[in-house]
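Review form for a predicted model. The reviewer records the input and the model, then writes brief findings.
Reviewer: anonymous (R2)
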Amino acid sequence: MPREGLIGPGDSSRTTGAVSVSSPPSVGMAAGKSSYATTPDLPTDQRNEDGGGLVFETEPFADLVEILGRPVLDLVLDVDRWS
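Model under review:
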C-alpha cells in the first residue's frame, strides 16, 4: 500500500469518511477451502488478494496492545455498481 494509505497517530482524517475501492470479482478466491466433507486447505500467497482489496494499516505499535472482550467493527457499505 502506498505510504499515504497508512493511519498514523493523531491522524483522524483517515478514520472517518468514504473510501472507494474497485475490487476485481476474483478477490477472495485464494482464501482456501473448508468443508465438512474434505480436509481444510490453506490459503495461497495472499499478496494478490491484498492488492485487490481495501487494506488499512498502521505503523507498528510502540507498546503491546491487548484487546479484551469482543471487538466490534461497524461498517456502512454502499455499492454503486455490480461486477
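Findings: The CA atoms of residues 25 and 64 lie 37 Å apart.
Further findings: The longest helix spans residues 47-52.
Recommendation: see findings above.
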